Each structure stands twice: as C-alpha cells, then as structure tokens.
Amino acid sequence: MIQRIPRPLRLFALLGAVLVLASAHLATGSTTSVAETLAAVFGHSDRLTAQIVHDLRMPRVLVGAGAGMCLGMAGVVLQAVLRNPLASPDVTGVGSGAVLGAVAATLIGGDFTSPTRMILVAVVGGTLGGAVLWLVAMRAGTDPVRLVVIGVMVSAAFSGGSMVLLTARPQLTGSMTQWLIGSLNGRTWAHWSALWPWLLTAAVAGLLVSAVIQLLSVDDDHGHAVGLAVSPWRSAVLLVAVVLTAVAIASVGAMAFVGLLAPHAARALFGADLRFALPAAGMLGAAAVCGADVVAQTVTSWAADPSRAGVPTGAVTAVLGAVVLIRVARRTSNSGGN
C-alpha cells in the first residue's frame, strides 16, 4: 500500500512526522506544561519558563535529533560501502574508536572538553577504529559474516581501552560513562553550534555522492566497468561515515542500534535508492533518539527522586533496539521456515 505513494511525498510525510515527534519531545518535562511550552516558543511566557524552554529543552531536542540523523546516515553509508546489512557504527570499530577518543579527551581535560575539540578527537578515534577494521578485513576477506565478527572484536578492543582509561581517573567516571552509554543530559547551545556545521557538510556530501555509493554497493567490477576509481572513492565515502559517527558520539555518546535499525527501516519504506534512503535514514535516526529521550525522561519522572538519577537515552535505545532486532530476526526465521 505504502509503495503506491510517490517517494517524494513519503519523504515529506516522514519529515512531518519527525517534526511532530520533536515538538512532543520539546514539551516533555515535569516543570512546564504543554501550553506553557507553546507560550514560551511564541514568546508569551514568563522569564523562568522561557529560560527552561529556550536554554534547556531546545538544545536538548536539536542535539538529539542532529546526532540521530548522523547515526542513521552513517549506518546507510557503512552498509552500502561494506555491502553488509549488519554493518553499523556499533560493530565496525568506528563508534568504539570515537568513544575512546571522547573518553581520552575527557581524561585530558582542559580545552579538549570543548564541543568542537571533542568532535575532532572523536573523528581521530573513529578513523583509527575504521582503519583497523579495514586493514584486518583486507587480510581476512570481505565475507559479510566474517567482517561483522572482526568488527565486533575491534569494537571490543577499543571498548576495553576506554574502560582502562576509566580506571585512570575514577573521580571522572560519571562524566566519562556518558560517552559509553549515550545521554542528552546537559546538552547546550554550544553542543548544537559545534554539531550542525559538521552534520550539514557531511549530509550534503553524502547526497552529492549518493550515486557513487550506489555503485560501490554493487561490486568492484561494476565500478571499474563504468570508470570509477573504486579504492579512493571507497575511502572518501567511508570518511564521511566516520565523520558522521564521530560527530554524533562527541555530542551525545554511543546510542546503540540507531545506526543499524534506521537504515533498515529507511530501505523498507523507500527501497535501495540512496537519494531517498539516505535522508530517510537520517530522519528516522532523529526520530529514534528523540522518541527514546521522551521515554527516558518519562521513566525518570516516575522515580521517587528524579533529581538523583536520570535514565540515559542510550539505555532506552539499547533496550528498544534489542527488542526490535529480536522480533525482526524471529519474523525472518519464521518466513524462511515457511
């Protein structure tokens, strides 16, 4: 049924749904009502409410949506270029490398904790993680299952490095663990100012080379036949995925499963054409993070003392993502059995 709707119209409908969800995210919280939030947005509220909405909630929503877009688009690019439906920032070493960079920057402290420098350090870590995977995979072959196994091992090694760094400064454990779990707590306009230029640049670059990514997703011989310089283009496109992943992790930490499930949902709605699947995955990633944060804040509000502990958004994406993945795996298994 949905396939009969023109894809541009589906894309606009998805954009509308994401904006509605982001608005619901903005209105989520125990200190102001929905009506007070709307009044603050249009400049008709008291000073305290305006500060809560403009200085606390808006950057939280924007940073969460921006990070989700980065992860969704990075997942599409990785799955296409590596020709592996299980590829994602979580299992390619890119995400864990970026987390290691963010944890190291927190450990060093000083100017490295600024949002912009945190992104640069995370890009270095993510590039290192992706490079290690690529070098090992070149020796072991590009079998999809083997590639995932190698990616899991590389991710585990980098995660172990992050844990070692955690033990070096136990007094910073609280601030460091946000990179491991993923959280939108404490996000400010400074984080959004550091995030959006990278997001815009990488997204435009991804869309401009979507035809190249489409060619790389087939096979190398097909690319050579049409005169494509396969290896340089693959490296350049992978760098786009690394940057997107690093920007997301430097902004909110690791958000499990977003970069894996958003691309699959995008392809189910828009097919394999990356001109549509790429922006759709970005929007679905934004919706996933915003929706997860609504759940996290709601659960936190049920606690006896919500000020003592906030449920990390990354914990919600991990739980919900695992449930969705299990359901999809069972459905696929049942279909295969029939």
Automatic annotation (TrEMBL):
<dbReference type="InterPro" id="IPR037294">
    <property type="entry name" value="ABC_BtuC-like"/>
</dbReference>
<dbReference type="GO" id="GO:0033214">
    <property type="term" value="P:siderophore-iron import into cell"/>
</dbReference>
<comment type="similarity">
    <text>Belongs to the binding-protein-dependent transport system permease family. FecCD subfamily.</text>
</comment>
<dbReference type="GO" id="GO:0005886">
    <property type="term" value="C:plasma membrane"/>
</dbReference>
<keyword id="KW-1003">Cell membrane</keyword>
<keyword id="KW-0732">Signal</keyword>
<dbReference type="Pfam" id="PF01032">
    <property type="entry name" value="FecCD"/>
</dbReference>
<feature type="transmembrane region" description="Helical">
    <location>
        <begin position="189"/>
        <end position="216"/>
    </location>
</feature>
<dbReference type="GO" id="GO:0022857">
    <property type="term" value="F:transmembrane transporter activity"/>
</dbReference>
<keyword id="KW-1133">Transmembrane helix</keyword>
<feature type="transmembrane region" description="Helical">
    <location>
        <begin position="274"/>
        <end position="297"/>
    </location>
</feature>
<keyword id="KW-0812">Transmembrane</keyword>
<feature type="signal peptide">
    <location>
        <begin position="1"/>
        <end position="26"/>
    </location>
</feature>
<protein>
    <submittedName>
        <fullName>Iron complex transport system permease protein</fullName>
    </submittedName>
</protein>
<feature type="transmembrane region" description="Helical">
    <location>
        <begin position="148"/>
        <end position="168"/>
    </location>
</feature>
<feature type="transmembrane region" description="Helical">
    <location>
        <begin position="309"/>
        <end position="329"/>
    </location>
</feature>
<feature type="transmembrane region" description="Helical">
    <location>
        <begin position="118"/>
        <end position="136"/>
    </location>
</feature>
<feature type="transmembrane region" description="Helical">
    <location>
        <begin position="236"/>
        <end position="262"/>
    </location>
</feature>
<dbReference type="InterPro" id="IPR000522">
    <property type="entry name" value="ABC_transptr_permease_BtuC"/>
</dbReference>
<keyword id="KW-0813">Transport</keyword>
<keyword id="KW-0472">Membrane</keyword>
<feature type="transmembrane region" description="Helical">
    <location>
        <begin position="63"/>
        <end position="82"/>
    </location>
</feature>
